[in-house]
Amino acid sequence: MKKFSMLALSTFGILAFGADMDTQKQKAAAGELKKTLVGELKAKMNDGSAAAVEFCSKNAMNITDGIAKKHSLNIKRVSEKNRNSKNTPDDSDKKALAQFADAIAKNKKPQEFLVVDGRYYEPLMTNEMCAVCHGKNSDIPKELKDKINQLYPGDRAIGYGIGELRGAIVVW
After folding, report:
1. Which three-class secondary structure state does DSSP give residue 115?
2. Distance (Å, whole) CA 60 – CA 50
C-alpha cells in the first residue's frame, strides 16, 4: 500500500510539474506575442493611426502564426467584438472571456491568466494606444474610420474605453 501511495504521489507530482511547464511555455509565447504586436504598433503609430491599422491588417495574423510556430504551439487572439472574423471566440474562448469579465466586474481587475479546457488565456485590456482605433465611435476620426471599414468591412471592435477587456490571447 505504501509503495502504491508513493507511486501515485510521484505520478501526480510529475503530471502537475508537466502542466506547470506547459503553462510557463504558453505564458512565454503569449508574452512574446503581446510584446511584439505592441512594439510594432507603437512604431507604426509614429506614421499615423491609419498606417498602424494597415500594418495590423497585413501582419498581425502572420506575426501570431510565426510565434506559434517558433514555440510549437497554437496561438490566436479572440474577442466578442472582433475586427477580424478569424478572431471569433469558440465555446472555450467564450468561457474564458466570461471569467475575465466576471473578475473585472467584481474586482476591477482580471486574473493574470486562466486555463480553460486545457488552453492558456491572457486578457487583453485596452490602453490609450488601443483607444485610438478601438475607442468610442465619436472619438475616432472619419479618415481612420474609413480606413478601418475599408480593411475590415465587418468591424465590430470599437466602443471601448480605457481599461476595458478587449479580448484574450489563447495558447494551447
Report:
1. strand
2. 15
Q: Enter the pTM of the model.
A: 0.85
The type of residue at 15 is: L
Mean pLDDT, residues 149-153: 95
Q: Which three cell numbers stand for residue 104?
A: 473585472
- Whether the per-residue pLDDT at 107 is higher than 70: the answer is yes
24-34 b/e (C-beta count within 10 Å ≥ 16 → b): eebbebbebbe
The CB density around residue 67, as the number of other CB atoms within 10 Å, is 22
In this structure, what C-alpha cell is assigned to residue 40?
Answer: 510594432
Q: How far apart are CA 128 and CA 133, in angstroms?
A: 10
Helix (H) or strand (E) holding 156: none
**What's the distance, Cα to Cα, between the start and end of the chain in Å?**
37
Q: d(Cα 157, Cα 93) in Å, to the nearest integer? A: 17
